[in-house]
């Protein structure tokens, strides 16, 4: 039974590894071993996860190998994400965002710079300047419209060799006249092209981004790729005949419906907010300095503004821009719900930093850190998927997540509660894992979150090891 469990346990790893494109088959094999070791010791150091010097040294050599890149590590996962995409139907959201992994090093030039800050030191709390170093990552997370993460479709890592000095630069150069290829924001366009090509069904893809993605070149790229975008805008662009802006035209649009959403205050109490919804299709023009390179586009603007804002809380105001059709209040609300899914990628980044503890690594160079974070990306997706699958597909079969041995062990280890005894088998098993991580499963408790899931999976892995040793000893 132990041998069967060990063979089955590698099933989900194999799906993420089998299509990997390494220069050497031995590197692919070592990647599979490292992925499994870091999953078993998620949140721990590499020596803790590997347990012996030979395995630890092999992991360090893999991460520092010049023939290994983050694209090699993630290539198999990208193909697995595409497979999960093809197994679904309907529109799929591709959430883009950038995050920074910060480190403290004596030689920050080996990693790269992210900025400068001041920290209080000494008994008087005097501020001391501190140079921050780190790695930046721009990722595209594929999510269903119900919120189930299917995996990553594109990832870009980079570092800064020097401070950009953008404030001083703007005194001499109009940033709108700098080619997009020379800006860091070009990653938005690269990820859109890579993810659209990977999934190979552009009409099902909706690329979602925050205000940082309000880039006219991004809109034109989506138009060229015949795909869709939904971004929160921060620029009041020229519209119509060029004699007025989007804001001026939206002021003339009447309220076309109301939408009530439930919010939680600082103490967790539920409140209702009423949003006034306006939407209008219009001609949006490129910036003046780019009108000779980019065409005008027919886009739809959606404004959601909260009425009767209570004191002590900032009102909700979303201004969205999209090339999706919006012809009714229901379609406008649908786009608002899709944009609200953007927070999923923030949760993914939280798992990377809090669950995998990517910022605790002591690796010394940017390339090694990027390779390690790439491995963590696969583990973080898996934890996120485990958390969301019980909410999005509670009726799925348990063997889509667990092996038969794991199901048997959970049945023996964690007794059913009266509240969960009648739940679907998959949901019941996932709650058992969460209970190992500290989830109480009370009637008033929300569904288990990522923190209790990764704690529960850590503990469950240790228990499985002891279970295997006991089986081997007893023959």
Automatic annotation (TrEMBL):
Pfam short name (any one): Tnp_DNA_bind
Signal peptide as annotated in the record: none
Family annotation (InterPro entries): RNaseH-like_sf, TN5-like_N_sf, Tn5_transposase, Tn5p-like, Transposase_Tn5-like_C, Transposase_Tn5-like_N
Domain annotation Transposase Tn5-like N-terminal: ranges: 10-68
Name of protein: IS4 family transposase ISPye60
Species whose genome carries this gene: Paraburkholderia humisilvae
